[in-house]
Specification:
The protein is mostly helical and 135 residues long. 81% of the residues lie in helices and 0% in strands. It starts with a helix and ends with a helix.
Length: 135
């Protein structure tokens, strides 16, 4: 049960930071600044959150890589679910428009790449955990 709380909690922190940074850079600067922040700042934030999860859950050296990959899968599933609820149902309902069933199909390729970048963050989080365990 505690693992689920930490998985959802670290995801919520990551999603909140990404949303704030994404909207702030998009609205205040430009879309290019948003994508630059997504691919420079967020991998660092994600790696640190993944490392924090591994430390708090006391994941062993042997289980570290597997556990962090499960964390990535969980974060992607949670992200898909939250994005679907928000952009397919909630926002269209608030705007009194039809559900946007094309949301995932119409995603920018950069969105899909940002999910792949989670793997890089996972590896960094895993390596940080191994370094801590070897210290």
């Amino acid at each position: 049960m505690m693992k689920c709380v930490w998985i959802v909690g670290t995801f919520a922190i990551m999603y909140l930071i990404a949303t704030i940074i994404g909207f702030a850079t998009y609205l205040l600067i430009n879309p290019a600044a948003m994508w630059i922040s997504v691919f420079t700042l967020m991998p660092i934030v994600n790696a640190l959150l993944m490392y924090w999860y591994l430390v708090r859950m006391r994941i062993s050296r042997q289980a570290s890589l597997t556990e962090v990959l499960y964390l990535v899968l969980a974060w992607i599933a949670l992200s898909f679910g939250l994005d679907a609820a928000t952009y397919i149902f909630i926002i269209p309902a608030l705007n009194h428009t039809a559900s946007n069933w094309a949301f995932f199909r119409d995603q920018s390729p950069w969105i899909w790449l940002s999910y792949a970048v989670l793997l890089v963050s996972a590896y960094i989080g895993h390596r940080l955990n191994l370094r801590r365990l070897n210290a």
